């Protein structure tokens, strides 16, 4: 890539620093590390590597362009943002560092100094305590990119499955009232375009999940399938999008079913995340579609309870870094 990836630090009291180091060391040893740099925290990362005996030298840099040369020596890290290392002890200072790294990373990516953004886990409650007013990083990124929140679509992706929750962080009791034909159409269009542009899937196949057991059983268990979901699928098909369903949730994730689609659009959070985490926990990646920038993240949280112990698996962070690089390459090809 002619431009490196930017990796945000995440909450320094969580597992972010150690999985960044572990992922980079693993990818470098395998010869798969793309050009990249971490946005701030050189001392946090250096102390983490020393404490956990991770073989990953830290190379402070002043400009993203230096990442290409610095990577020959170790992990490039932008100097200028830093703080103390306090594993498992979240603090306002740590939250401010996480937020500054995220803000700086977005600016660099929007400016073209980074080809994509990989975000380490943050703690929403810790960020809220220092003035954060967003449901999550996805919504923050949408606003930073000048897009409405509903244009930022969360897709969870692994080697054998991609899922999209149509509703995300809302109570389950509110889901039926939030599911609408317009919501399904809007997100399905963004997913189809994202698969084409960022994943090289020329003719995306979208499976649309049902809301109720047995897809409503002819109205016995609910009428949302006939009243809302089926008309949305028909409208997508009329636009030339290969969508099908409603598929009962208990049949959607069998091996045979997964071979028949490129992404599954699910009605609520757990319907999408339970199968993804069951199948791809150590390689699951959170991808944001619908934005002008590429953004990926490991599909797990800060894990404060195990931070600093050296037991966090860096597999999902490594997968997020590789996927961001692959998306960047696919986008260049699609836009050529």
Provide structural commentary.
The protein folds into 2 domains: 1-152 and 291-336, Isopropylmalate Dehydrogenase (3-Layer(aba) Sandwich), CATH 3.40.718.10; 155-280, Isopropylmalate Dehydrogenase (3-Layer(aba) Sandwich). Helix content is 40%, strand content 15%. The chain contains 12 helices and 12 strands. The strands form 2 sheets. Strands 2-1-5-12-11-6-7-10-8-9 form a 10-stranded mixed sheet, sandwiched between helices. Strands 3-4 form a two-stranded parallel sheet. The model has no long low-confidence stretch (mean pLDDT 94).
Helix segment tally: 12
Main sheet makeup: 10 strands, mixed
Side-by-side strand order of the widest sheet: 2-1-5-12-11-6-7-10-8-9
Our count of domains comes out at 2
pLDDT average, as an integer? 94
Spatial gap, N to C terminus: 15 Å
Category by helix and strand content: alpha/beta
CATH superfamily of the largest domain: Isopropylmalate Dehydrogenase
Helix content: 40-55%
């Amino acid at each position: 890539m002619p431009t490196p990836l930017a990796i945000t630090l995440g909450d320094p009291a969580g597992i972010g620093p150690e999985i960044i180091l572990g992922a980079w060391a693993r990818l470098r040893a395998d010869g798969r590390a793309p050009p990249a740099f971490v946005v701030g925290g050189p001392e946090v990362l250096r102390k983490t590597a020393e404490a956990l005996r991770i073989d990953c030298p830290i190379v402070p840099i002043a400009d993203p362009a230096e990442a290409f040369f610095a990577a020959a020596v170790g992990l490039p890290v932008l100097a200028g943002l830093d703080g103390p290392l306090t594993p498992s002890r979240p603090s306002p200072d740590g939250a401010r560092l996480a937020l500054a790294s995220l803000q700086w990373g977005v600016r660099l990516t929007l400016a073209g100094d980074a080809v994509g953004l990989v975000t380490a886990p943050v703690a929403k409650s810790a960020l809220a305590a220092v003035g954060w007013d967003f449901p999550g990083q996805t919504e923050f990124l949408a606003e930073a990119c000048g897009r409405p929140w509903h244009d930022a679509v969360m897709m969870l992706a692994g080697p054998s499955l991609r899922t999209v929750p149509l509703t995300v962080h809302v109570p389950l009791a509110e889901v039926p009232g939030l599911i609408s034909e317009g919501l399904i159409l809007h997100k399905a269009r963004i997913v189809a375009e994202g698969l084409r542009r960022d994943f090289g899937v020329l003719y995306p196949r979208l499976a649309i999940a049902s809301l109720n057991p047995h897809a409503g059983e002819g109205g016995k268990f609910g009428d949302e399938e006939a009243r809302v979901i089926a008309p949305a699928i028909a409208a997508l098909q009329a636009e030339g999008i290969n969508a099908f369903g409603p598929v009962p949730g208990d049949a959607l994730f069998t091996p045979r079913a997964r071979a028949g689609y490129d992404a599954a659009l699910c009605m609520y959070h757990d319907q999408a995340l339970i199968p993804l985490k069951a199948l791809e926990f150590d390689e699951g990646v959170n991808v944001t579609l619908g934005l002008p920038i590429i953004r990926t993240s490991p599909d797990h949280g800060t894990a404060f309870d195990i931070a600093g112990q050296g037991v966090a698996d860096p597999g999902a962070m490594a997968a997020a870094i590789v996927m961001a690089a692959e998306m960047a390459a696919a986008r260049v090809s699609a836009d050529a």
